[in-house]
Amino acid sequence: MTLSVKIFRMAKQMVKERQDITGLNCVKGASGKVIVDDKGIKDSWKEYMDKLMNEENEWDHKISAGVKEGPADCIRIDEVRAVLKKMKRHKAPGLSGLVAEMIQATGDTETQWLLDLFNGIVKEGCIPEQKSSVVLPI
After folding, report:
1. Per-residue pLDDT for 79 more than 90?
2. Does the CA dihedral 65-69-74-76 come out positive or negative?
3. Which DSSP symbol is given to 128?
4. 55 CB-contact burial (10 Å; exposed 0-12 / middle 13-18 / buried 19+)
């Protein structure tokens, strides 16, 4: 077997190992019984999510927070830098496609841009609508 064939097989195996599992074959229901049919699995997930989202938690009513009147405090550049520094590396990107390493490597110009964006959100009280854009490779 040639070296190129071995490399190809190793690469193919690596790709196969990193693929996501797209479907579930079975799930354990609330009663502890294993469910294998699609309708039963969907119903079990629906029941679980209903319980999770509609469950009331008890809390101590003695704790209260005062109402803040007046404008919200502006975010400072040192707070943005501290948060950027704390971001965990080597994590999967979100819907934007950005990872922490990309944001951390931007420098002071982009840090200032983020600061302006965040303070604009605080001042206006709403997040600006996302504009669609296309990145073309050169």
Report:
1. yes
2. negative
3. P
4. exposed
